[in-house]
Amino acid sequence: MKSALFTLSLLMLAGCVAKPSRTPVAPGVRDAQIGLVDGYKGYVVAEGLKNPSFVSFHPDGRLTICDSGNGRVLVVDEGKLTPVIENMRTEYWKVYKNDAGKEVKAFKIGPLAAHWLSIYRLVVTDAGLKDGEESLVTIHVSSDGPSANRELSRTNSVPPTSTDPADKGEGNLSGMCVMPDGDTYYVCGQGYDGKSWVLGGSLSKGTLEPMFSADENKIDVNSPMQVVPWNNNLLVVYSGAGGEDDGLLVEWNPVTRKPVRQWKLTGLLDPMSIAQVPGTSSQFVVTDNNWSLTGINPGRLALVTINDDTATIRRICDRIYGPVHCAFGPDGRLYVSCLGYEVDGSAGQVISISGFSRQ
């Protein structure tokens, strides 16, 4: 028990970064050919997923994956994918008309983020609902399997925050972080683009409320995707408009709810997540999804170093299809969820990358 709790405390500090261990969290199935630069090595550690999103780690170190399009949360247990939560609600993120005028449903999503609070307690974003109906649910994960799980608590949802009829409330809750107190949390909302929010609240009180608005602080870039704690403040990565070079990293003061500094992520079209490199103070890996509504493009991973004025960006790889979320495991490897080669297919993967210990 002491070992598990110690690991948990490490994971919750500094954006879920933990000290390296000797063995991989998840043994690789095979090498990943994703265009990595010299010095890094990639391994496929999970596959057969549908639109996987958040990756995190159980207190005992097991890799945990939001298999979003299948409405499941999985752990990699001795090389096997084992469901710990099943049958969560799902929806299609977008319905559009193709060139032939036919209605197409795209990007089926369900649970978009999950974080272990203890050995048997997992908080999950219930993101497979309509905007304005989503919430965070805390679940007791039973050792007897998903059918024996119990819902312990649930937050409120967030209704429209503007008078625009297009504003239906907050949805697609993703990029969650739980603070070291195990109760305070922040999560990114993807509701109405005209007024984007980072939300937050208390798990014990069941609260969820708007916290930081880019639009109210004269920040033109919307779509917050990931929030992580950093230097007593919070870092939020904004993806901006799909396919445009407008990605942004913003440091927020959680007390004043005001931006402190901003960094342009030049050359990253659709940054979706950020993970602090273990043992560094201002170096991060950022996933660039290179997003498209109608297909999956080759994306990138970048090593981003920030100082007072600028962000230095160095590519790590450029042939990883649809990278979404990333996090460093207790083995020092980076774990990245990827959509795979096709929209709403079962080619989603999680890839681990080694080589960061030399940074």
Helices and strands, with pairings:
Layout: H1 2-12, E1 30-31, E2 41-49, E3 55-57, E4 63-67, E5 72-77, E6 80-85, E7 91-97, E8 103-109, E9 114-116, E10 121-126, E11 135-140, E12 150-154, E13 174-178, E14 184-188, E15 197-202, E16 209-213, E17 224-230, E18 233-238, E19 248-253, E20 258-264, E21 271-276, E22 283-288, E23 298-306, E24 311-321, E25 323-328, E26 334-338, E27 348-354
Antiparallel strand pairs: 1-2, 2-27, 3-4, 4-5, 5-6, 7-8, 9-10, 10-11, 11-12, 13-14, 14-15, 15-16, 17-18, 18-19, 19-20, 21-22, 22-23, 23-24, 25-26, 26-27
Low-confidence regions: 1-20
- What would you give as the CATH superfamily? TolB, C-terminal domain
Supply the helix-strand structural class.
mainly beta
Average residue pLDDT: 91
Q: Nearest-angstrom radius of gyration? A: 19 Å
The largest sheet, given as strand count, sense and whether it forms a barrel, is:
5 strands, antiparallel
Can you tell me the overall shape? globular
The separation of the N and C termini measures 32 Å
Number of E strands: 27
* Oligomer category: single chain
Order of SSEs: HEEEEEEEEEEEEEEEEEEEEEEEEEEE
